[in-house]
Amino acid sequence: MKPKVSIIIPNYNEKENLERGVLEEVVNYLRKAKFTWEVIINDDGSTDGSIKILESFVNNHKGFKLIKGNHGGKAQGLWSGIKKAKGEIVLFADMDQSTPLKEIEKLLPWYKKGFNVVFGSRGKARKNFPFVRQLTSWGFRVVRQTFLLKNISDTQCGFKSLKREIALQIFPKLSVIKNAKNAKGWTVSAYDVELLFLAEKTGHKLKEVDVVWQNEDVSTGKGKNFITESIDMFNQIITVKLNDLKGKYN
Asked: What pLDDT, on the 0 to 100 scale, is given for residue 145?
């Protein structure tokens, strides 16, 4: 029987998060879940030894699958998972579980109300988020809403779901997928903006839902660069707007 939900979790150098038991949290919730499921973990070419932890875990837990991918970034990892997924709905969840998996219960009911893309929102006050990050997030939201998706508060929450058939249609059109290349270090783009923009532009009903979020990421091997990440996110807004004006999404 095909699962109702395919949960796709990208992994890149998440050893510390894995060691504190995030996947046990996932399993403990899913054992009591009232929907059928599968979990697909895409390892994005980790270099911190987390792949060994994942291999052991997947071998000992039914319903979990592991994809060993090349290092291409978060969006590429999600796309790999989507192509392997069998569920009616695909859910993206971050390995650090800053939004715990149980929050899916807030998303699923909206599908029965005719929505095709249902995604989490962290709200404006974000626990364990440094002030500078809060300020940058506010600036990003203001700029983004000026040009795109004016009715959406938070495009960047990693907790997103959509019908698998829609994901299969939209992901190949994303710039980060079309212009795929090997990544260097921690790579996260504002692919979320383009994903939601294309979903809205093609007539799908979107629903933003407030979810619990608290920064739980303790990983040290990603080599995050806050400045580079912020520039990339702002550039993505401009790229999507220009692509739309040029008719590239028609």
From this structure: 80
